[in-house]
Design a protein that fits this description.
2 copies of one chain form a homodimer. By secondary structure, the first copy, chain A, is an alpha/beta fold. Chain A is built from 9 helices and 9 strands. In chain A, the strands form 2 sheets. In chain A, strands 5-6-4-3-7-8-9 form a 7-stranded mixed beta sheet. The first copy, chain A, has a two-stranded antiparallel ribbon with strand order 1-2. The first copy, chain A, is elongated and about 60 Å long.
Amino acid sequence: MKGIPPATVQRLPIYLRCLREFEAPTISSERLAELARVNSAKVRKDLSFLGSYGTRGVGYDVDHLTHQVSRELGLTKDWAVCIVGMGNLGNALARYGGFGERGFDVLGLFDSDAGKVGRKVGNLRIEPLGAFAKAVKSRGFSIGVITTPASAAQESADRMVKAGITSILNFAPIVLSVPEEVDVRRVDLSTELQICSFYLSRSAGKRAS
Amino acid sequence: MKGIPPATVQRLPIYLRCLREFEAPTISSERLAELARVNSAKVRKDLSFLGSYGTRGVGYDVDHLTHQVSRELGLTKDWAVCIVGMGNLGNALARYGGFGERGFDVLGLFDSDAGKVGRKVGNLRIEPLGAFAKAVKSRGFSIGVITTPASAAQESADRMVKAGITSILNFAPIVLSVPEEVDVRRVDLSTELQICSFYLSRSAGKRAS
């Protein structure tokens, strides 16, 4: 069991995206650092946790490194994903092209609203929450995505935990209570706006001074 | 001009969220580290860039630190935000409750589809792209959010740049070309799923071994 620090794990998807978009066969740590917006010593350290050291004067082989990062992230197998809460965000995620190609198969969409049940989104139909537990068993959902309003999020999490899901991605603006063995990741859609704001205030400051 | 490293900037919104959810008057770097999932030495270092050092045995004053992080992120003033591309994701973001309370006022929604123009989303009506440049002038949008399909994203970015927007948040799965002085941040909605996958493969490995 290699101990990869959580902060490194957070950066692996960023490296992966940069590598996938990079068009030359090799990449230097400096270039990867620039694309990923971290410093190059950190890139080298992060990649060393994966056993990747690059070649002095040449850099890293892009294909090999892409494979290594993917494998480390568990992306060489596919994961079945379900989404609970089919409002705008649930619909947007269900239709989001990027999931399938990264190994995340959205295989179930659920909502408590009888008016939404049966509606088609892409290739799937929205199912009632009553069908959730059985669907987890038959379709083996590994990751549950919560896109309900805040008021329904805890109940959705309880349902997921009860059905055996151990990894939850929560878009609802609420802190969920789950047993210790369940991994909950909270996505705050305003995070990146806050980073925009940081750089904007800096450049506004520069212009003013 | 203080030089706050980009990696620290990335973590500031996470600290801010943790601080806002924390209910005691003081917080130790260890506790904040645990909530933010980074190590506590890094928390102390990050906060030292803000001139915050905490008090030994007591920790940081939560209100004061919240204010410092907010100020550093430029959140003590409001920013006007516009969204181009009113599909599911655009609608989800326009209705997302978390923006307003964090100082991001969504003041304009635009789409090229005449069928969508005029439709009401929250308190706003979707406007045609032809009205964009004038709206930037009159409403002072600082941040442009792109939620169009990939095929329309570059054109949207060009329009934003031409209208004087210098900060773009891009949700479309494409790399945008913009002049150097424009800050583009790309949001990949599958990033957090990839981190879920990392921890899932680890725990699956643990169970199997």
